[in-house]
């Protein structure tokens, strides 16, 4: 069972990375303006992208990219949409597993069907 789980996890990670790699050419970068070199020799365009991304993640303000073409709040809304979708999927999977186990229990002991059904409905209500 563990080998199957690891294989499925690896397949999902591989498919996800392939999807992200295929989406990399989808986004068009904003046009860069040439800037004169500063005294330190580092301009905003020469900073590593990871450092700029980390700075934007820890900044709780509604900043926007140079030129006003990409708004961080809009990207935050997209991220919130993905998070809500994943939460809905997780809840649906949990409810499916609980319902399946309840049906298994009822098929094994039909005399406790009313008790199991009540507990199932209560737990499904809490999952929602």
Task: Describe the structure using short key phrases.
single chain, 128 residues, mainly alpha, elongated
Can you describe what's shown?
The protein has 128 residues and is mostly helical. It is 66% helix and 0% strand. It is built from four helices and no strands. The protein starts with a helix and ends with a helix.
Largest sheet: none
* Amount of helix: 55-70%
Bulk shape: elongated
Could you spell the SSE succession in H and E letters? HHHH
Counting DSSP E segments of at least 2 residues, the number of strands comes to 0
**Number of helical segments with 4 or more residues:** 4
Distance between the termini: 30 Å
- The poorly predicted ranges are 61-66
Our estimate of the beta-strand percent is under 5%
- What class do helices, strands and sheet pairing give? mainly alpha
What's the overall average pLDDT, rounded? 75
How much is the radius of gyration in Å? 25 Å
